[in-house]
């Protein structure tokens, strides 16, 4: 959703009104005295100490705190926790209710992979990997600064390190090592510009040192911050935060996947998604009425492109007000018929909900506002009087205070009423947006009216269209031109305390300026001096707003459909969000660059941040796509965990059926995706249980192969399918890296023995995408693709056995009903192939009539060699050198078959 363009005049005004910090920015950080450790208590698993300011306060950006405390806990063999906090315990700490802390096993340090050591005066600490004696973190490079509104900690690093993470950003996957600033401050970031802070807050980095191992460092802090990576005065990474404490978790690895697993123990395990959530989704901003939605559904069907879910942006709302319907364009009776039609055809429906609530109550009753007022759950002005009023899509709006104890009940009530299955819009999932929180009205918001629309007027929906020429085959009578429609005229239907933040700070204009691309920290959001119900301030909790809306929304969906897995796609996230929701990557543009960048971005969320249900807007949101970009993007998007075509209201239409090439690309790609749906679903289930990522950057599989460390345009879908999209406009070739080992071309089954080299693939049509199966794997596929995922579940399986150098392979398959929150009968099947025998073991509790209908061993007979592009030319599957065994093999019990 596009951010309203802030006028330069206002931005400039407000920025200068807030100025004054720039001079002090040059303050003499390096004259800061640091701290001295005393009263060190060491009881093995736990080390505590008092830290006292070691000299004259430097007050670089405010007031130095004199007394700190250190607490070090050897929590597990692979996790070491270092916490430096204010002795008074006032500085903001993220509540347990939003980010539950992992429990500590308090292990004997002798059993830890990591070692903590320190110097007392000045106080510095370092973390070592014991097996190699490699220093992983060392704060001696610059003095520790801990002020009321500025915290600094610097660690030395080896030169040119391989660092990943610190999202959300669209910078290179491997982070820059020189002159680089990563700012974390959640922001409505139209066009997802590189070098800027975007929607999410994920302060974890992976530090990969090849054969010396990988470790992770997570800073549990909601504070706005600049993380600087630079190589002057030695290579370093430096945190510069506006508040909070230093709450650092060191994760020992030693492999990248180990770090992912160890982080999942802190962030929480990824939430399971409904099976149908992996279907193909269509959306756009600017579907002008319910007829337009019906037409798109029909067009997909006629084009024979499987459409699982139809989405609607804010267009459905009355003047863009949440929890209302436009009575002219999206009347409730037709909306209910549309949703019934979709459900009758095994399809789904989703709409967007924004947090900001219009404060207007005219024409269409605004229950969402009135009930919020009754329950008094909206944010108040900083001076405590009245509700803070900003401006979002509907014009003047108020914002739910998620810290209010009644906010959940309020949110539940809105969902129960507006999305009532019998009388309302019976949605199947939810899309939440603008929850950074975004506010079009720049600080200080003196006139929210002025930002209600680009022309300064209340938002005007498009005129109602004459529907007499709109024949929509297959849809109910009400949608047909002969019927006169019944149109509904209107739808009736505090002070601070422990961990709440240090009192007396300048909450609007902190001395240190983070590099927020929106300007001052209160720009285009809820002002940072607005107090939350519990007594904390937006200054400290801004980055939690999207997470809190996500949690409230998940609860609200569960209230209306108990015991069914909610699919929720959010824009703003915080560390740990993946245990509640999925996410899309916001407002990208229809650019080849954004098509390429999306690969690193989905890897960051799925593999590093433990938020696997992620995708970018396919074909691009802003600007106009082209036929070839959209065709390529359809094939790449089929390998995003969340696969949705979405675009903006001023862009040309880009539904897949609009161009022949795109339609063919989409049919091909959806077919592969659906056949592999259980394969990826099995990986999601594994990630939800273990934290092992369901997408893998190449270096996750080949951590000692330096060629893989910077690769950001190829990835493994699941463990075993290497996806290598064509990257350039008009190109039909791409140079890819094939790590050392055996691979099989997905399309031709051709066996490729790679010694670890870059190879050029040629003649790749716009309707296809290079895919390679890793030797040593067994891939379960559905026998055929289908029109919906409901039909897909009735399809039998086939197994593809892709053997390794020793003619062995293994794989797995997880089966459940795909929808129930608490599953009581699941199957977790392991496949192992060796010595010509396929063995199936595991648990077999999910009842199904579906069987494994046949098994194909790839490349075991005569290997096909030669031009690896030949398979693309004829388009069809050319099975080269395969042994095939006919089934059926039951999925109800363990068994073994010889070939
Ligand atoms: C480990 O490294 C530290 C710091 O680099 C050094 O002081 C120490 O002697 C090393 N220990 C061993 C066993 O090499
Ligand atoms: C560092 O980056 C800034 C902003 O991107 C740029 O203006 C400056 O020239 C760079 N400095 C060096 C030493 O590269
Ligand atoms: C990196 O260091 C150079 C030299 O000290 C400095 O000019 C530059 O601003 C630094 N970059 C960042 C992002 O801190
Ligand atoms: C570093 O990151 C910026 C984004 O801030 C990017 O635009 C730039 O190209 C990168 N520079 C290098 C040398 O990689
Ligand atoms: C898909 O096929 C099934 C079975 O033929 C049918 O019931 C359903 O309506 C179809 N759905 C769509 C969207 O085509
Ligand atoms: C915060 O304010 C609420 C409501 O005014 C009150 O109930 C609560 O006790 C306050 N908390 C603190 C820590 O002052
Ligand atoms: C996209 O195409 C439309 C229709 O041709 C045009 O009005 C619009 O200006 C284009 N947008 C951009 C960003 O080029
Ligand atoms: C791709 O081909 C189109 C049509 O021939 C052309 O307009 C465009 O400039 C080409 N793009 C590039 C990057 O060569």
TrEMBL record:
Keyword Glycoprotein appears in the UniProt entry: yes
Keyword annotations from UniProtKB, A to Z: Carbohydrate metabolism, Cell wall biogenesis/degradation, Glycoprotein, Glycosidase, Hydrolase, Polysaccharide degradation, Secreted, Signal
Reaction(s) this enzyme catalyzes, per UniProt: Hydrolysis of terminal, non-reducing (1->4)-linked alpha-D-glucose residues with release of alpha-D-glucose; Hydrolysis of terminal, non-reducing beta-D-glucosyl residues with release of beta-D-glucose
Glycoside hydrolase family 31 TIM barrel domain location: 271-682
Signal peptide: 1-19
Residue ranges annotated for the Glycosyl hydrolase family 31 C-terminal domain, each copy included: 691-779
A Pfam family hit: Glyco_hydro_31_3rd
Entry's localization field: Secreted
Family matches, as InterPro entries: Gal_mutarotase_sf_dom (IPR011013), GH (IPR017853), Glyco_hydro_31_C (IPR048395), Glyco_hydro_31_CS (IPR030459), Glyco_hydro_31_N_dom (IPR025887), Glyco_hydro_31_TIM (IPR000322), Glyco_hydro_b (IPR013780)
Gene Ontology MF annotations: alpha-1,4-glucosidase activity; beta-glucosidase activity; carbohydrate binding
Task performed by this protein: Glucosidase involved in the degradation of cellulosic biomass. Has both alpha- and beta-glucosidase activity.
Family to which the UniProt record says this protein belongs: Belongs to the glycosyl hydrolase 31 family.
Protein name: Alpha-glucosidase
Source organism per UniProt: Massarina eburnea CBS 473.64
């Amino acid at each position: 959703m596009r951010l309203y363009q802030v006028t330069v005049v206002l931005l400039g005004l407000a920025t200068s009104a807030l100025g004054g910090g720039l001079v002090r920015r040059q303050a003499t950080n390096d004259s800061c005295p640091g701290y001295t450790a005393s009263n060190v208590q060491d009881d093995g698993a736990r080390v505590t100490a008092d830290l006292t300011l070691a000299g004259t306060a430097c007050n670089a950006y405010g007031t130095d705190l004199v007394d700190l405390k250190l607490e070090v806990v050897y929590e597990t063999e692979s996790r070491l926790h270092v916490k430096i906090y204010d002795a008074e315990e006032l500085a903001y700490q993220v509540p347990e209710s939003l980010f539950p802390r992992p429990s500590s096993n308090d292990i004997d340090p002798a059993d830890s992979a990591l070692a903590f050591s320190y110097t007392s005066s000045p106080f510095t600490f370092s973390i070592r990997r014991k097996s190699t004696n490699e220093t992983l973190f060392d704060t001696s490079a610059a003095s520790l600064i801990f002020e009321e509104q500025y915290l600094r900690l610097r660690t030395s690093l080896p030169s040119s390190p391989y660092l990943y993470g610190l999202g959300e950003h669209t910078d290179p996957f491997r982070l820059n090592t020189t002159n680089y600033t990563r700012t974390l401050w959640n922001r409505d970031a139209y066009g997802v510009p590189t070098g800027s802070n975007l929607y999410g807050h994920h302060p974890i980095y992976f530090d990969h040192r090849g054969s010396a191992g990988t470790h992770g460092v997570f800073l549990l802090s909601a504070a706005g911050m600049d993380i600087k990576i630079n190589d002057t005065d030695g290579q370093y990474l430096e945190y510069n935060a506006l508040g909070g404490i230093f709450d650092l978790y060191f994760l020992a690895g030693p492999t990248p996947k180990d770090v992912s697993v160890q982080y999942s123990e802190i962030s929480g395990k990824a939430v399971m998604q409904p099976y149908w959530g992996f279907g193909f989704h269509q959306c756009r901003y600017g579907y002008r009425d319910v007829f337009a939605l019906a037409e798109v559904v029909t067009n997909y069907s006629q084009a024979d492109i499987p459409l699982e879910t139809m989405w609607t942006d804010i267009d459905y709302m009355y003047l863009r007000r949440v929890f209302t319907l436009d009575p002219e364009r999206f009347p409730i009776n037709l909306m209910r018929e549309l949703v019934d039609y979709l459900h009758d055809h095994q399809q789904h429906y989703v709409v967007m909900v924004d947090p900001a609530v219009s404060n207007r109550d005219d024409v269409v009753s605004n229950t969402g506002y009135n009930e919020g007022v009754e329950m008094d759950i909206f944010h108040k002005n900083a001076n405590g009087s009245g509700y803070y009023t900003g401006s979002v899509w509907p014009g003047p709006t108020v914002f739910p205070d998620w810290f209010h104890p009644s906010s959940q009940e309020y949110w539940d009530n809105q969902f129960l009423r507006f999305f009532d299955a019998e009388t309302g819009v019976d949605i199947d999932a939810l899309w939440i947006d603008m929850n950074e929180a975004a506010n079009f009205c720049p600080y200080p918001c003196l006139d929210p009216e002025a930002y209600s629309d680009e022309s300064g007027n209340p938002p005007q929906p498009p005129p109602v269209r004459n529907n007499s020429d709109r024949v929509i085959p297959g849809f109910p009578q009400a949608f047909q031109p002969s019927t006169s429609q019944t149109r509904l005229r209107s739808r009736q239907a505090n002070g601070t305390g422990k961990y709440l933040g240090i009192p007396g700070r300048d909450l609007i204009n902190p001395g240190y300026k983070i590099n927020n691309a929106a300007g001052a920290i209160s720009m285009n959001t809820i002002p940072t001096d607005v107090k939350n119900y519990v007594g904390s301030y937006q200054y400290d909790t801004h980055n939690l707003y999207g997470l809190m809306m996500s949690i409230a929304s998940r609860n609200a969906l569960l209230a209306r459909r108990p015991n069914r897995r909610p699919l929720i796609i959010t824009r703003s996230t915080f560390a740990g969000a993946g245990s509640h929701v999925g996410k899309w990557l916001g407002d990208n543009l229809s650019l080849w660059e954004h098509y390429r960048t999306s690969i690193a971005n989905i890897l960051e969320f799925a593999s590093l941040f433990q938020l696997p249900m992620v995708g970018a807007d396919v074909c691009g949101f802003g600007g106009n796509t082209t036929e070839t970009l959209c065709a390529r993007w359809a094939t790449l998007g089929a390998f995003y965990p969340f696969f949705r075509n979405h675009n903006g209201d001023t862009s040309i239409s880009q539904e897949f059926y609009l161009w022949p090439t795109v339609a063919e690309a989409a049919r091909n790609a959806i077919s592969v995706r659906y056949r592999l749906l259980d394969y990826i679903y099995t990986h999601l289930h594994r990630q939800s249980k273990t934290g092992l990522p369901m997408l893998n950057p190449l270096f996750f599989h080949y951590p000692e192969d330096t060629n893989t460390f910077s690769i950001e345009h190829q990835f493994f879908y699941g463990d075993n399918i290497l996806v290598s999209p064509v990257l350039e406009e008009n190109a039909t070739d791409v140079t890819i890296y094939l790590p050392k080992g055996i691979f099989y071309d997905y399309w031709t089954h051709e066996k490729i023995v790679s010694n670890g080299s870059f190879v050029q693939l040629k003649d790749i049509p716009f309707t296809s995408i290079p895919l390679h199966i890793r030797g040593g794997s067994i891939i379960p596929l559905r026998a055929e693709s289908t029109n919906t995922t409901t039909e897909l579940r009735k399809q039998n399986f086939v197994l593809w056995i892709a053997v390794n150098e020793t003619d062995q392979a293994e794989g797995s398959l997880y089966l459940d009903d795909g929808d129930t929150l608490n599953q009581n009968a699941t199957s977790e099947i392991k496949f192992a192939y060796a010595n010509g025998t396929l063995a199936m073991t595991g648990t077999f509790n999910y009842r199904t009539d579906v069987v494994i209908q046949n098994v194909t061993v790839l490349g075991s007979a005569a290997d096909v060699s030669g031009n690896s592009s030949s398979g693309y030319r004829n388009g069809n599957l050319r099975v080269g050198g395969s042994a095939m065994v006919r089934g059926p093999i039951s999925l109800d019990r363990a068994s073994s078959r010889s070939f």
